[in-house]
Amino acid sequence: MLHKIFFIIILFNFSACMKVKKKGDEAKVALPAELGESQENQINKGNQVNYRYIVDGRANYQEVIFSFPADWPSEVIIKKTECIDGAKTSETLVKLDDSKTWKDFLIGDNKTNYQFYKAGSDLKVLDEVEVVPALSLDLTSDLNLAQKYKLNSKTRHIFFKSLKLNANTHLYIEDFSGNLKIDHLLSTQGSLQTFPENAKAKLGVSGRSGGLVKIEILNGEGDFTINMMGEAGGDGFTGETPSIALKGTSGKRGSVAGFANEYATTIITYIKCVAPGGPGTAGGKGSRGNPGKNGLNGGNSGRAIVYKNDLRLQISLYSVAGIKGYGGVGGRGGAGGEGGLGGDGGDGDPPGTPSTSAWAGGVAVSVTSACADGAQGANGPEGDAGVDGHVGVDGTISQSSLYVGGVRSAFANN
């Protein structure tokens, strides 16, 4: 036996889960020797759990064989969560033999999460994987597999028993990194692609890069394109709204009205307006606005290592860098300063009265003509807009590789 099960605890909880359409079998494919150990280890890390599918087409279940690192403990607790409506969770204590392998069964068309713990009081998490069921797909329209299954770094393997791409359909995997195996492929100018051509990151976000994907195709026919392309970088944000600190200076107040003696009697001195209140000065121009934020970098193309041995299948490989994002538009300039108030006029009552008292030395003062208040100065103009942000940087291109029967192929777009 590959393992011994000591006890099983069944739990039920709820989580957001996803459903798929069909399932399939996995076929074993020899890897090209030219891939090299270092490249292989970038995809299958030696300190992680690896797994493979064994599917009997006559059965309503799929077998998955898990291989554990050699330095793992002999007793492991495995928590399995099936993504169904009302997610079902079970925990199993497994005693591993020297082969360090364990077999489980997948029933249904849902992704399954496995968490591996070191048995004992500390329950240390050793690793976690998310297993997508083996797939059989017949596509007549584009499908984003990454979004459908919420692919992430925990999903390390995707297997298609059969994949049919009709009439220029696209299968998107976004930034998935790992192994992708296809037992039977029929493509009518279909493509496997990281991101759609018009994919662009949100404002202020860098473009995502394609992953490192090893693609193995056992049997296939037709025209098939693999496009490894980075997502375009997001544009920069517009410059921030100007703060009060960017507002122009206020204008100065106008001069006070002027009065002069017109005539006098023994008891009253009559004065008149000779200069109305002066106008306020204009407000100052606002300061330059805040600069726009820089555009973000485009994603790198990613890299595909493709292996096929069926000469009926024609494969084209392309690598495209994600383009840079544009810099954000500079922010509005600061508001102009407020115009200065006009100088006070007057009719004998403050404000605007002469500097002498209305009763000076027992003699009354009377204003024969009042002075008008001065006009308020004009508000200052708005400041110049801030400078636009700098553009980002295009992503980089990595060369993908195609192996036919284990021999590397050299062609124009390889």
* Secondary-structure content class: mainly beta
Radius of gyration: 39 Å
Major sheet description? 10 strands, mixed
Q: What is the first-to-last residue Cα distance?
A: 45 Å
Helix content: under 10%
β-sheet strand percentage: 35-45%
Strands, total number = 22
Average pLDDT, rounded to a whole number, is: 83
Number of helices: 2
Inertia-based shape: elongated
Q: Which blocks of ≥5 consecutive residues have pLDDT under 50? A: 1-42, 348-360
Report the order of strands and helices. Answer: EHEEEEEEEEEHEEEEEEEEEEEE
What oligomeric arrangement do these chains adopt? single chain
What does this structure look like?
- The chain is mostly beta strands.
- Helix content is 3%, strand content 38%.
- The chain has two helices and 22 strands.
- The strands form four sheets. Strands 9, 10, 11, 12, 13, 14, 17, 18, 21 and 22 form a ten-stranded mixed beta sheet that branches.
- Mean pLDDT is 83; it is low at 1-42 and 348-360.
